[in-house]
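Below is a filled-in request sheet from our internal design queue. Each sheet records the structural input a requester submitted and the sequence that came back. We keep these sheets so that new team members can see what a complete request looks like end to end.

REQUESTER: design group, bay 2
PRIORITY: normal
MODE: inverse folding
CHAIN LENGTH: 280
BACKBONE (tokenized):
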């Protein structure tokens, strides 16, 4: 095991946890942080696509992505209708496809539009659901739902890493990510479920403004590692396609921003839907 990576990871987790628990979700610093994360991840996605010979309008995609992230936060803070967001999404899609007319080669234009759209949807659109979760408790309170998601997913990742490194013998998806194992996945189940149970005990069965029965904590403890692993495998497929180990180099042993949030990009939309259907 990489001890330096573990120490660095725990330090980052401690700093982020303190900030998340103390700063109201409506504070402007939260918006800045969420936009920085989105921007860095989108930049890495477009860089991967460029290496894979898939062109995209990087500036257009990133401007649209950052705008959509900001509007998601503003909509939640000021109680605007979701119709504002869906109208903005429609405008963004129209802008991306209107850029088709800026190319003399129709085939190149189509590839560019699809590449731009992919980067926007994969990062900014999925990330907007994490922003929604961040604001569930209201703008005047620190987040709870997003913090629980971070704990459950990242401790699930840690469980998969620890158990998989020690006991992993049966490969989960060797042609995409040779280090992932079925034993590691079960380690993710264990750690994520423990987080869910501890959360249920410490909060009296609450997830922000919602009741959070123990059975739901256990269900999410099983589903998060599965969905998070799928998100990680999708990103691993991108990196393998262009021959890279990491999407970037932000921290020792942790790769780029996309490497850090790949599992959240899939679990955040799922948790948002889960809350809407089963906890509201």
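RETURNED SEQUENCE:
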């Amino acid at each position: 095991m990489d001890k330096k990576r573990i120490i660095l990871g725990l330090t980052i987790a401690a700093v982020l946890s303190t900030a998340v628990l103390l700063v109201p979700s409506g504070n402007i610093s939260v918006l800045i942080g969420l936009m920085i994360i989105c921007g860095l991840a989108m930049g890495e996605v477009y860089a991967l696509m460029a290496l894979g010979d898939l062109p995209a309008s990087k500036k257009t995609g990133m401007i649209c992505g950052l705008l959509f992230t900001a509007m998601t936060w503003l909509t939640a803070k000021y109680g605007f209708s979701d119709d504002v967001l869906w109208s903005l999404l429609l405008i963004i899609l129209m802008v991306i496809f209107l850029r088709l007319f800026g190319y003399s080669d129709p085939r190149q234009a189509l590839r560019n539009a699809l590449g731009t759209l992919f980067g926007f949807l994969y990062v900014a659109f999925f990330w907007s659901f994490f922003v929604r979760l961040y604001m569930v408790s209201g703008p005047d309170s620190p987040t709870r739902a997003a913090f629980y998601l971070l704990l459950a997913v990242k401790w699930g990742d840690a469980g998969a890493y620890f158990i998989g490194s020690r006991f992993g013998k049966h490969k989960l998806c060797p042609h995409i990510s040779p280090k992932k194992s079925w034993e590691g996945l079960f380690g993710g189940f264990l750690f994520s479920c423990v987080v869910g149970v501890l959360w249920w005990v410490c909060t009296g069965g609450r997830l922000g403004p919602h009741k959070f029965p123990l059975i739901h904590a256990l269900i999410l403890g099983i589903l998060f590692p599965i969905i998070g692993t799928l998100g990680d495998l999708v990103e691993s497929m991108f990196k393998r396609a262009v021959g890279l180990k990491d999407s970037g180099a932000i921290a020792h042993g942790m790769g780029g921003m996309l490497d850090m949030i790949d599992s959240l990009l899939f679990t955040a939309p799922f948790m948002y839907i889960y809350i809407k259907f089963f906890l509201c």
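SHEET NOTES:
- The chain is about 75% helix and 5% strand.
- The radius of gyration is 19 Å.
FILED BY: M.R.
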